[in-house]
Amino acid sequence: MQIVDVTELGRRVRALRLQRGMTLKQVESLCGLSATHLSEVERGRTSPTLGALTRLAGALGRETAYFLEPEELPEVAVHRGEDARPEPLGPSLARASLTAGIPGSQLHAHELRFERGASAKYEAEAGDAEQEALYFVLDGEVELRIGDEATRLSHGDALQVTHALPHVLSRVGHEPARVLVTSTRAPKEHA
């Protein structure tokens, strides 16, 4: 795994501190690191321990990952519709990511596109009970099966479910359908 060097780390700390309108002393009081040490970090002369960086990130209102990831991702990520690149998941099912990425983000959104024709299913395996998903039907009609229970959803309907329960989404009939999926679990990579 590649991480930023000490100079870039310091630049990010300083830029964020100034953006937040904070002094070194104010950051010191929030994270417990001395203003002198913080100054050395900002100038790229020293690197904080992971624990110290975590406290510093909390004081500056960011995830620790923001200071370590090679690509500096913004606090606001805009994803334009024309940038959505559908990834085939089967003969008549595709997924287009709608989230570009914010460091440490736990929110993932994508659009499922059920094309006209053969039946297709989108399966979510059981997982962490603290993670959840929201399915919102943009067009068409779908069925969400959770265990032995099936719920039909059509344009404008939404269903929220915990990832502790395995569930399967499928199109009803042969007409196209589009579903917005927002989840606190990253979608499984398609092989």
In short:
This protein is an alpha+beta fold and about 190 residues long. Helices cover about 25% and strands about 30% of the residues. The mean pLDDT is about 85.
What features would you describe in this structure?
By secondary structure, the protein is of the alpha+beta class. It folds into 2 domains: 6-68, Orthogonal Bundle (434 Repressor (Amino-terminal Domain)), CATH 1.10.260.40; 81-183, Jelly Rolls, CATH 2.60.120. 23% of the residues lie in helices and 30% in strands. The strands form 2 sheets. A 6-stranded antiparallel sheet has the order 1-2-3-10-5-8, with no helix packed on it. A 4-stranded antiparallel sheet has the order 4-9-6-7, with no helix packed on it. Helix 2 packs across helix 3 (35-42). The mean pLDDT is 86.
SSE layout and pairing:
Layout lengths: L5 H14 L4 H8 L3 H8 L7 H10 L5 H4 L18 E4 L2 E5 L10 E7 L6 E4 L7 E8 L1 E6 L2 E6 L3 E5 L4 E5 L5 E7 L8
Helix pairs in contact: 2-3
